[in-house]
Amino acid sequence: MPPSDSVPQGRALRRIRALSRPLAVLLSIALGLFVISAAEIVVVLFFHRLGSPHDWVSFNEWGLELAIGGDFGPHPNPALIPLDSLAAGQRFIVAGLAILCATCEFILLLQLRGLFALYSRGIVFAAGNVARMKKFGVWLALTGIVANVSDHLFERALHAPVMGFANAPMEIVYGAMIYVIAYVMELAREADLERKEFV
């Protein structure tokens, strides 16, 4: 009998594992970078008027953005708001929205990282893969909605424009598509298990 590596299925599995390992590592690094988001939120909450006059805050489709020590000239982009001009209530609103967006993005990446971690171990069509894909689809749609709502709340609370609104409808469509694909995979897996049990 030929070794498993010579079988097409074995070769495909090896390729999946080889491609998935670096992606799992990159996603782990991305998750670690959320510490920076936490630091940004602390700056927003505890920034004092005695600090640099060149610290700015803005909000875009990805969440909170800080520009520390940036000099944007006498007429900066109106979406850039000086940190020292924010009242305490506004700071807490900005921090709350930033935490909300960052939490959704963190969970979204966590599901994707979990999926590639399974692939890197050679687990491809198990129940865990389907569950991760379903959760990723749900969180992708939810993240788009939360980001879009946060953009509008930021705009109303600070009376300032945002850098860009999240495209919630497209993220909902993509999330729904991924969820349906995972559901079809689940049905195919169940049918395959039933066939094996019958045989």
Brief summary:
A hairpin with a 2-residue loop joins strand 1 and strand 2 (63-67). It is elongated and about 70 Å long. By secondary structure, it is mostly helical.
**Average pLDDT level:** 83
Low-pLDDT residue intervals, each spanning 5 or more residues: 1-5
Shape: elongated
Helix content: 55-70%
**Roughly what fraction of the amino acids lie in strands?**
5-15%
Structural class, by secondary structure, is mainly alpha
Structure report:
The chain has helices at residues 8-32, 34-46, 88-120, 127-158, 168-198, and strands at 56-60, 63-67, 81-82. The chain is mainly α and 199 residues long. The protein starts with 7 loop residues before the first helix and ends with a helix. The protein is elongated. The chain has one domain. Helices cover 67% and strands 6% of the residues. The protein contains five helices and three strands; from the N terminus they run ααβββααα. It has a three-stranded antiparallel sheet with strand order 2-1-3. α2 (34-46) runs antiparallel to α3 (88-120) and α4 runs antiparallel to α5 (168-198).
Fold topology:
Blueprint: H1 8-32, H2 34-46, E1 56-60, E2 63-67, E3 81-82, H3 88-120, H4 127-158, H5 168-198
Helix pairs in contact: 1-3, 2-3, 3-4, 4-5
Task: For this entry, give a set of tags.
single chain; mainly alpha; 67% helix; elongated
